[in-house]
Amino acid sequence: MPISPDQLEGALARGLAPIYLLFGPEPLQLGEAAAAVRAAARQAGFSEREVLETGRDFDWSHLAGAVGALSLFATQRLIELRLDGDKVGQDGAAALRAQAERPSRDVLLLILAPALDWKALKSKWAEAIARVGVIVQVREPQGRQLAGWLAARLRRAGFQPTREAVALLAERVEGNLLAADQEISKLALLREPGPLDAEGLLAAVADSARYGLFDLADAALAADRARVHRILQVLAAEDTAPPLLLWVLAREVRKLAAIAFAQVRRQDLKPVFTAHQVWDSRRPAALAAVARLTLPRLWRLVECCAAADLAIKGRGPGDPWTLLTAIAEGLAAPPLTGPRR
Q1: Which of 73, 172, 203, 275 makes the best surface tag, with the fewest CB within 10 Å?
Q2: pTM over 0.85
Q3: Per-residue burial over 144-183, b = 16 or more CB atoms within 10 Å of its CB, e = otherwise
Q4: Across 224-245, average pLDDT
Q5: Average pLDDT, whole number, for the chain?
Q6: What pLDDT, in 10s, does the model give residues 10-53?
Q7: Rounded distance, CA 229 to CA 36, Å?
Q8: pLDDT at residue 231 in the model
Q9: d(CA 253, CA 230)
Q10: Relative orientation angle of helices 198-205 and 177-190, to the nearest 10 degrees
């Protein structure tokens, strides 16, 4: 049965297997798993490494030749076989099965197969590898798995992230683990290790030289429509990531909608302020915005945020920047002059 990349470290600690098959389309985890096998092999004395890359005209007899060749420089060798494509063909299947059935004590075979079809695991050659070696399946984490992966990665970098910070990072990288790794590396350069909330993360990774995303939120809350327009132009010119912009705007919309709803229900506002982190210094501005916008208009902005989210993810109609601009302008809109609805 294949193991996950997280389980590979434990498997290596228990001792080296003669063959490792790493497959799956996610490049960061695949590369790190391969690096872990190489490091363990070097530590165990496999000091020489030979790379074979398969292609359309690859002669599979070269694999047996490489395994059986004598080295003038090392007694133990690592042979790295990089598979091209989702299948190995009849000759490849025969060659791999032969190596698995007669593994060499002095050769460690590392097979990298990013495009291998998972159905190949049911083949005779894969079953032969599973009996003597280790198969690692790399998958792109989704949902809770992605959040867990990001949280673990942040902790490894020395941070203690909040759930909101992890959710924001997940929105920003959109499942691209290479991008996530780059963001976390950049974060480690910009911030000291320690607690990390969403605002701290956003301040570190947002791409805005003259204006920040929180400047936009403040301008919208203050109904400064001219400044909102200027900030939006700068953020668009600097290719600010739409998920980040939506996160900031949606947070303001949800906060104001919650306050307005509590007012309509004549509920105590203190729990709402606490839940949405509206501190004393910002409460007057928030209450003024609620009075200016009213609950029905805020509900419509909540719906606009949902539509923008779908557009950003390619699941809904509309241009993301057009929708985001409408949300920002809606937050900064003047009070209605006619009867409220």
Answers
A1: 73
A2: no
A3: eebbebbbebbeebebebbebbbbbbbbbbeeebeebbeb
A4: 86
A5: 88
A6: 999 999 999 999 999 899 999 999 999 999 999 999 989 999 99
A7: 50
A8: 87
A9: 20
A10: 90
Residue matched to tokens 């299947």: 93
Q: What angle do CA 192, 171, 290 make, to 5 degrees?
A: 95
CA 22 – CA 31 distance, rounded (Å): 9
pLDDT tens figures, 122-159: 999 999 999 999 999 998 888 888 999 999 999 999 99
Choose among 314, 141, 285: nearest CA to 218: 285
Report pLDDT for 205.
64
- d(CA 46, CA 299) in angstroms, rounded, equals 64
Per-residue 3-state assignment (H helix, E strand, C coil) for the chain: CCECHHHHHHHHHCCCCCEEEEECCCHHHHHHHHHHHHHHHHHCCCCEEEEEECCCCCCCHHHHHHHHCCCCCCCCEEEEEECCCCCCHHHHHHHHHHHHHCCCCCEEEEEEECCCCHHHHHCHHHHHHHHHCEEEECCCCCCHHHHHHHHHHHHHCCEEECHHHHHHHHHHHCCCHHHHHHHHHHHHHHCCCEEECHHHHHHHHCCCCCCCHHHHHHHHHCCCHHHHHHHHHHHHHCCCCHHHHHHHHHHHHHHHHHHHHHHHCCCCCHHHHHHCCCCHHHHHHHHHHHHHHCHHHHHHHHHHHHHHHHHHCCCCCCCHHHHHHHHHHHHCCCCCCCCCC
What count of residues does the chain have?
Answer: 341
**Distance between CA 328 and CA 66 in Å, rounded?**
63
Strand order in the sheet with 48-53: 48-53, 77-82, 107-113, 19-23, 134-137
CA-nearest of 109, 130, 110, 134 to 121 is 130
Q: Which amino acid appears at position 235 of this protein? A: L
